[in-house]
Amino acid sequence: MHKLFSLTAGMGLLCLAVSCNTDDAAEPQQPKNACLVTKMTVAGTDVITYQYDSQKRLQKADYSGDATEDNYFKEYAYNAAGRVIKETFKSDDGGDLSYFTFEYDGNNLLSKIAFYSRNAPTNAIVHQYNKVIDYNVSKQVVKVSTYAPDNSTTPYRYDTYTYDANQNVSKIQEYTQHSTGAVNDVSSEYTYDSKKNPNLGATFLGVGAETHSRNNILSEKVTYYLSGLTKNYTHTYLYNEKEFPVKETVNTGSESYQVDREYSCSE
Known about the structure:
Protein name: RHS repeat protein
Signal peptide: 1-25
Largest sheet: 16 strands, antiparallel, barrel
Keywords: Signal
Oligomer: single chain
Strand order of the largest sheet: 1-2-3-4-5-6-7-8-9-10-11-12-13-14-15-16
Order of helices and strands: EEEEEEEEEEEEEEEE
Number of domains: 1
Shape: globular
């Protein structure tokens, strides 16, 4: 949730909205009376606004920055079960820049994410990678493996997930495949508040602590084992009456910035 993720086109991590389904789904869902994020402002300049359909599904996210940045938007498509199956990243003129596709297993669990983007010099849309998701018996994500499009056998990266007693992701360990085997090169450890997480169950955000934890991150410690570097991030919040964060202050150690969220809340 630190600034590294803000406005990163390939990651799609600023589309903060809540999935409002109540079925036995892959991701823990907020109830139907949950608040939907309608606008988010990052560091006072980067603004994202969200449009929903009559079923409270995110249809479009508009991104705008300061005068030096290009504006763009994302559109979403759904299957008959109401699950997002495609997120398309577009320039202001409507041209496709990249897209994600989402697949689900027989239990409605998110099972695969594929990413496609334009490659130089031809500018053609190219399949970049696949992410395959594994679950435990409690339907919690326990492993995310990243494969090259032409290799469905051996992942070149994978992440493992550990949870605390409150169903929050407490640790993610990242591994890279080397000729001698998998190497644990990065780990992230998290602590949380006790309030409602607006990212919970947002499939289009992919997988991570932000989308698979019931509460909001208070601290994140990232350890880079190969370099010996450690980074610490802290988050403080103000909440609305529904216990969703409306103001978030992120401290990276070298800088701090604010994230403001506006909601539409049903009774």
